[in-house]
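Title: Prediction job returns without error message
Component: structure pipeline
Severity: low
Priority: P3
Assignee: unassigned

Description:
Job completed but the reporter wants confirmation the result is attached to the right record. Sequence as submitted:
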Amino acid sequence: MKRCSLALLLLVLPAVAGAQVLPGIDVLVRRGFDGLEGKRVGLVINQTSLRRDIRQSTLEAFLATNVCHVTALFGPEHGIDASEAAGDAVNDQTDRRTGLPVYSLYGATRKPTPAMLRNVDVMVYDIQDIGVRSYTYISTLINVMEACAEAGIPLIVLDRPDPIGGDVVDGPVLDINYRSFVGIVPIPYVYGLTPGELATMANGEGWLANGLRCRLRVVRMRGWHRSMTWGETGLTWVPTSPHVPTQEAAFALAITGAIGELGIVNIGVGYTLPFQLVGAPWIDGDSLARRLNRARLTGLYFRRTAYKPFYAMSSGTTCYGVHLMRIGENAAPFKACIAILATLRDLYPERNLLGSIADEKWKTFDKVCGTDQIRLGLLRGDTPDALAAAWRRPLGAYISRREDYLLYE
């Protein structure tokens, strides 16, 4: 029996190791750019828009075909090459390599204008996302969908994986009263959808402005399933923005990104471990690590650490705190965010950490969270479990609706 099991294992391992996930651009190329014959194409792209082997970008793949021709490029926050800092306006420009116009969707406008679409027959969106609602690429996607619907132009989404995991869904569903560019549709903070699935759900649920529906086509990936880790896809991680250089940073952003908006601790941005640290000169790393590990947050371990940030808060000063490490599947990254804030609140009552935060920072925090209930609960002294219970029912309703739009098993 043991010999038989070993033989089966040896047969299965090479198959798993050789498994390949093909992103939507590779599938489109293999299909000969079907449906794009003779079309003038607008590409919504950035530095992550690459084929599987990373030797050819999406733009280069389109330029290499005579099936259609590219007439305009559109860039999200950070620009098409990620050269701009978070929150900085990006200007329109001309692409140096091709001479094509590059229209910024994070500058004078965040939605393609009729003038930008004048020479476009079909728009194509191909950007790697991270599965966190406050990450603005999905807001750009929704705006592009609305512009295409208004102009009667079809949109093709070349799909890519959710690196946090297609089964991970957590956090409060956006209260529409807190709608902004860091929360544009009523989904949870960690929403468990690929870009193609999100676009499909936005269309199906009527989330576009004025009840618009986009003529949408999703070019599905091949070989991806919801429970895959990023490492199992075989894809190379390309920094999705300046402070998300690794997949670990993308996952950690789902936990500490909202904390960073408050400015009470350093979260590693500007250091070698962006979003993966929680530190300050006054924190006792041993105590914080013990408290957080005692909370038994699924799939997480907090390691005591010390470091000197390169810039931003406490630059040049030693920070003490924790390094959050993923040691398994984590089904509740936003609850981990709340647990960290509640633990800091309770561990250092004399500092009045939450009471000292300026109103403007709380307003930004509320926008990122998509509700004011997290702020109010933390200030009341609520536990993480109590806060999570408050979003459980709307989260369950979202998960139920989401089932209708899943494109992958």
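Comment from assignee: result matches the submitted record. The longest helix spans residues 384-402.
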